[in-house]
Amino acid sequence: MPVAITRIVLLTGKSEGTPLSIELLRYNPSLDITVAHDHSDLAQAAKKIDDSTRLISFCTSVIVPRETLEALPGPAYNFHPGPPERPGRYPSIFALYDHATQFGLTVHEMAPSVDSGHIVNAEWFDIPDGCDLIELESRTLIRLITVFRTLAPYLARFSLPLPHQNIHWQGRKTTQADCDGLCRVTPGMSAKESERRRRACGTYLAKVN
């Protein structure tokens, strides 16, 4: 008999923690939800993992240690702000730089290797003409929240794993260093390349220049 979920560790940003928690509590009001924002929070929350705990990661760059994943009784799930063909950091920046016409999101089981676990949900949408980084990330977040709401009744109550989809990760896994390198504009760069990077990197450009 599957063990009911009684505790959730929600790894996410400060602005997302409360609304996502409220959504989960709608379907299981007795849930004990611990919101973790960084590695320190996660380490403290991991000390209380038991056989009724689930870990959900939502749009965060915090990497969950192998030992934490192995301590959980079942799969942890990550809501990744990019489609399966764009694993890794800042997928939206690389999509815009590549002049991609589509983007999307991926929900997957977490594995020790980032963005490699079995996919349980993926969606795609068209990138509108003239879309910049702020708009693309906003559109992606709205869709991620919609998918979270769809899965919340199951995630909040049932410990059995979500069904795997016949969809697989593809493409190069981008890193923080890749992004830092892309989001630099140098004096000798052509105007066309400079503009391409400015559109893709948006406000992130100022952080590395």
Report on the architecture of this protein.
- By secondary structure, the protein is an alpha/beta fold.
- 38% of the residues lie in helices and 18% in strands.
- It is built from eight helices and six strands; from the N terminus they run E-H-E-H-E-H-E-H-E-E-H-H-H-H.
- The chain has a six-stranded mixed beta sheet, sandwiched between helices.
- Helix 1 packs parallel to helix 5 and helix 4 packs antiparallel against helix 7.
- The mean pLDDT is 94.
SSE inventory with pairings:
Blueprint: E1 7-12, H1 14-27, E2 32-36, H2 39-46, E3 53-58, H3 66-71, E4 77-80, H4 91-97, E5 102-109, E6 119-126, H5 133-155, H6 176-182, H7 191-201, H8 205-208
Parallel strand pairs: 1-2, 1-3, 3-4
Antiparallel strand pairs: 4-5, 5-6
Helix pairs in contact: 1-5, 4-7
